[in-house]
Amino acid sequence: MLISITTLSVFFGADVLPALAKEPSSVVSALDSDNDQTLDLAEVKKAANDLFTTLEKDGDETLDAKELKGRIDKKSLKVADPDSDKTVSRDEFQNYVEKIFKDADPDNDGTVDENELSTKQGKSLQRLIQ
Ligand SMILES: [Ca+2]
Ligand SMILES: [Ca+2]
Ligand SMILES: [Ca+2]
Ligand SMILES: [Ca+2]
Predict the structure, then answer these.
(1) Is the pTM of the predicted complex or chain greater than 0.85?
(2) DSSP structural state of residue 105
(3) What angle do the packed helices 24-31 and 41-55 form, to 10 degrees?
(4) Ligand 1 centroid – CA 57 distance (Å)
């Protein structure tokens, strides 16, 4: 009897911490809602939309350079900001993410896998979704 009570208290105190690893596989598993081990455009856009909301601090529904915190570099900002108002709206962000997604999917199968996410373009994509 005494043993079983002790065992219970040990279990009660047990704590499971989530791993905070940042390798591509964890990016995929965190955002892969249909569990096919790859990210499709819908999953990527959902994540990008959530990130936009997280980064958008001053409530003007656009991301300025300060809010972007280097996630889009100066040169790429010209592509991401076609109306050149120096901010990225939610629509501009989504369109840009779609473009980078295509760049990050060289085999054109409509999904990015772990290998594709570890390329230069894949890393650019990661900065837009997490
Ligand atoms: Ca998926
Ligand atoms: Ca803003
Ligand atoms: Ca703009
Ligand atoms: Ca692919």
Answers:
(1) no
(2) -
(3) 90
(4) 29
Query: What is the rounded distance in angstroms from the CA atom of residue 51 to the CA atom of residue 93?
Result: 10
Residue 2 tokens, joined: 């005494």
> Residue 120 is part of which domain span?
22-129
Q: Which carries the bigger pLDDT value, residue 98 or residue 19?
A: 98
How far is the centre of ligand 4, averaged over its atoms, from the C-alpha of 81 (Å)?
26
| Separation CA 130–CA 1 (nearest Å) | 49
Q: Determine, yes or no, domain membership for 105.
A: yes
Structural domain includes residue 69: yes
- Count how many domains the chain has: 1
For residue 17, is it within any domain?
Answer: no
pLDDT digit string (tens) for 11-60? 545 444 444 445 677 899 999 999 999 999 999 999 999 999 999 999 99
Closest CA to 88 of 65, 54, 57, 58: 65
| Ligand 2 center–CA 7 separation, angstroms | 52
